[in-house]
Every structure is written in structure tokens, then in C-alpha cells.
Amino acid sequence: MSDDEQQTRQDFDDAVNMTASELRRWLDTDESKHVGQKPPGGGESTGHESGRHIIRILDKKQADYTDDDYAHMRKVVGYVARHSEQRPDGDVHDTPWRWSLMNWGNDPEKR
Questions:
Q1: Where are the domains of the chain?
Q2: Exposure string (b/e) for 5-30, b if CB count within 10 Å is 16 or more?
Q3: Model confidence over 40-94: pLDDT tens digits?
Q4: The dihedral of CA 13, 78, 55, 101: what is its sign?
Q5: What is the pTM of this model?
Q6: What is the C-alpha separation between 111 and 109, in angstroms, rounded?
């Protein structure tokens, strides 16, 4: 594994604090399906699709990661960092802000 891949994996592990089973359960909720940017005409949001890819990554052995997996890990790290900076004031438990982060594998209430 290259240094870049090792750093990407470490950053991904820091950003994604939900297990594959937690994320799988979350993605089945109405709240998860309600938030995020959807393609014109409807369909699955970018974050929801990302959550499914994260589950596939978490279910794999590290030796089986593809270039696409590493690219997605970097995308997840960037999204979580940017979105975390936009934290609204007050209780965030039942907010679209938190739900969006959870679609990307990060529950801000777990930290």
C-alpha cells in the first residue's frame, strides 16, 4: 500500500464513524431518503448513493480496495470536512444537516 493510500484510509477512518450495519439501517429510513441533492427528475440523492458505496468499502478487506474505492474515500473525507464546518446552532439531532452527514457515514453526535 502506498503512503497516499494509507493516508486516505486513515482520513476515511477518521471521517466515517458509523459501522456498515449502522449505516445500512440508517439508509433504510425516510429521513435518510429525504435529504440530499437528487438528480433532475428525482431518484437517489448523491449522499444516499455515497452511503451505499461506503458500506461496500467497509465490507471489503483492505487488500481488495480499488482505485474507485480510494477515490470515493477521498470524496467522503472532503464532504464530511466541508459539511461539518456548516454546523447549525442549537440541537442538531433531528436536522437535515445531521441526516446528510449520516448518509456519508458520519454521525456528528457520536463524537
A1: 3-110
A2: eeebbebbeebbbbebebbbebbeee
A3: 888 899 999 999 999 999 999 999 999 999 999 999 999 999 999 999 999 999 9
A4: positive
A5: 0.94
A6: 6
